[in-house]
Amino acid sequence: MCSISGVVWTTPHSPEETLELVRSMNRALRHRGPDGEGAAVVAGGRLTRHHWDGRGGPLFAPVSTASRSATTLGLGMNRLSIRDVEAGHQPMADRSDQVTIVFNGEIYNTEELGAELAGSGVTFRTRSDTEVLLEAYMRWGRACVEKLAGMFAFAIWDERDQSLFIARDRLGIKPLVWARTKEAILFGSELKALLATGLVAKRVRRSAVDQFLFHLYVPAPNAPLEDVHVLEPGHTLLLKNGELRIQRYWSLSFAPGAPKSLDVHAETFKTLFDQAVGSHLLSDVPVGAFLSGGLDSSAVVATMKRLGQGQVHTYTVGFDVKQYDESSDAAEAARFIGTEHEEVRVSITDLENDIVRVLSHYDQPFADPSAVPTYVLCRETAKRVKVALAGDGSDEQLAGYPRARHFAMLEAARRSPAAARAAFAWALDRAAPLLGGYRRRVRNLADYANVLRNGGASDPMSAYIHLRHVFRNGWHGRILTPDFAEHVGREDPSFHIHAVADQSSAVDPITRLLEVEVHTYLPNDILMKVDMASGAHGLEVRVPFLDHRLVEAVAAMPLQAKLGLRRTKVVLREALRGSLPPGALRKRKQGFHLPVAQWLRGAGKGMLFDTVLSQRATQRGYFRPEVLRQLADEHVEQRADHSGMLWSLLGLEIWHRTWVD
């Protein structure tokens, strides 16, 4: 976990001005890399590299070489030292001082690439993966990204052709935002860095607000401010001769592979998963793991143990409210696998005290409530280790979320005749109050049937968009002011979902859903959440399920290897049969939840009214004040559960106050 940032001026600036601006970006991102800081400045005919330790003192004297660049630019980075702690300082240059890199992430096939490069005559000066990446660029140029296995965002300044080359990993594990302003082109690991320069206008992209209401995140390549963009996963950005070009370098196909038995698929999965976990253990500092007791984290931890990691240290957070507490499941899994397990007890009151802190840390609107417990878990784990493995990325590939089955039901409704849909909606409307614990699921089906009855049957992704949309059952239309509704009504808030679905090579609707999830929900929600939560505490979280070689293999497997009549994640269960604790195999998908509904009716009620219903909020022109009041009153008085909508509105307003006002 590090940070990178940079500026390319469009007009001449002094070395001193450039260095100060880069250091302001570094200061904004210091939480991501507290062990050291670096900067490289190209200005006035010189390229100068600076390195400081974690206390801000110089590691050694600045290194300066001649530069023929007419462009003035600066690169910055903060380091969390994990590989070659003593020598892997950045920015790093090649032997000729012609190519300079700043890099955030990990390259997991360092040994293979290093051996290949050494065979061609390269002599390495360090043991860091940064140098391997740098030498890969020297050997293969910008095509080096195709040879990398890892999580990364990096920037390379090449004096030889006066180009800046930026790349982001295939799945979007590491973030990268950029902006073009009148004065400069800026980039950084988080929006905070760009805002720290004072060069980015705080003009909110209004369509992004509507997209957030639909998906609880702002989908890439959009960002919440008009001048800011997200470099999408699997893409590169090249700035050369004043021209900026973005290009995709990796595509994932969900077309079915050659027919094979489940046993063969399971063996393939096991081989690739073992390789992924093994490569993710490379580190010069201790490595731990998150363990919830669920299938995914147990699979990672059991494989760590089986690969001879030695004593595996695992961590979980236990809560004092039973329905949100997975600590007993984690303890059972730890005993079965044989880990050194540590449980951090947190009261719901303690968790609630972190809510504003967490919402304020996210510099883009974000409303996944699990961000709060994830933040707490990362904070407590970071007190013990610098690196932790996690089980993220399995659900999206292997149909682990309940919505995969719900989608199948809704898709069947979409394909039925119009008269049948109308009758279906009528029956479900009347059945919902009578079905007790199934009421929410039936209500969801009834809402969707009404969507279909009102013209949504032509969109094959309407079921998924409905499942993801918090403001359904007419609330989205009611809550928007007329002016805001007219402004955003011309754009598709689900453009990113339709773009993936329209180009999908999947042969069935559920596999197409998984493809959409991998390309949209995974990078925009799950990976952003984990990166921001871990980065806040200088913790590097690694996700072996997202080794791209494993992802490519799983994508080509048939649906039956992922979702069965009674089982999810079929191939994972088969591949690790005998290695997983019985509780993990039986455990239903729980997720990392926060008791939002209760909090908004209790301790959070004052914040809700003072924030969402404030004059400051309503004057933004997005929402009708009377509808906001209706939502809040009905929820607080327990006449309805509007917690999802109110939490989203709270997050949006806190984002405005922290990063825009």
Can you give a write-up of this model?
The protein has 661 residues and is an alpha+beta fold. Among the domains are: 3-248, Aminohydrolase, N-terminal nucleophile (Ntn) domain (Glutamine Phosphoribosylpyrophosphate, subunit 1, domain 1, 4-Layer Sandwich); 595-661, no CATH class. 43% of the residues lie in helices and 16% in strands. The strands form 3 sheets. The protein has an 8-stranded antiparallel β-sheet. It has a 6-stranded antiparallel β-sheet with strand order 6-7-8-9-13-14, with helices on one face. A 5-stranded parallel β-sheet has the order 17-16-15-18-19, with helices on both faces. Strand 2 (36-43) and strand 3 form a beta hairpin. It is globular and about 75 Å long. The model has no long low-confidence stretch (mean pLDDT 91).
Layout of SSEs?
Layout: E1 3-9, H1 15-28, E2 36-43, E3 46-53, E4 63-66, E5 73-79, E6 92-93, E7 99-107, H2 110-119, H3 129-140, E8 150-158, E9 163-168, E10 177-180, E11 184-188, H4 191-196, H5 206-215, E12 228-230, E13 235-240, E14 243-248, H6 262-279, E15 287-290, H7 295-306, E16 313-319, H8 327-337, E17 340-346, H9 348-353, H10 355-361, H11 371-382, E18 387-389, H12 394-398, H13 403-414, H14 418-431, H15 439-453, H16 462-468, H17 475-479, H18 482-488, H19 495-502, H20 509-519, H21 521-535, E19 540-542, H22 548-555, H23 570-575, H24 582-586, H25 596-601, H26 605-611, H27 615-618, H28 625-636, H29 643-659
Parallel strand pairs: 15-16, 15-18, 16-17, 18-19
Antiparallel strand pairs: 1-5, 1-11, 2-3, 2-5, 3-4, 6-7, 7-8, 8-9, 9-13, 10-11, 10-12, 13-14
